[in-house]
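Reading a protein record of the kind used here takes only a little practice. An example makes this concrete, so a full record is given next.
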Amino acid sequence: MANEKFVRVYESFDPEELKAHTIVIDELEGQCLNCKTLGINYLKNKVCPSCQNEFRYVATNARNRELIIKILGRIRKEGLSLKLVEKEDLDKALARDALSDLFRKS
């Protein structure tokens, strides 16, 4: 464990599944991506207090690599099973889905 490093691993997901189970955080508090509830502490709340969806993923608006490593370190230290999702990739996937829904025939 002393020599372990964080690396990106790409995996395919249903964007709506990610949206339903992701908390978007700054440093300690975040927002449920599903219902938009604010002020949720990702270290203490395993589910959204409003919509009751389980948090399986965490995304951050942080661009600073050191802050992202700090967040990952907290997740590991607390023994949380959250996976970090690249926020930019998630936003693009959700936008593509929203755009395709606009042009889908009823």
In short: The radius of gyration is 15 Å. The mean pLDDT is 89. The chain has one domain: 16-103. Strands lie at 22-25, 29-32, 40-41, 57-60, 83-85.
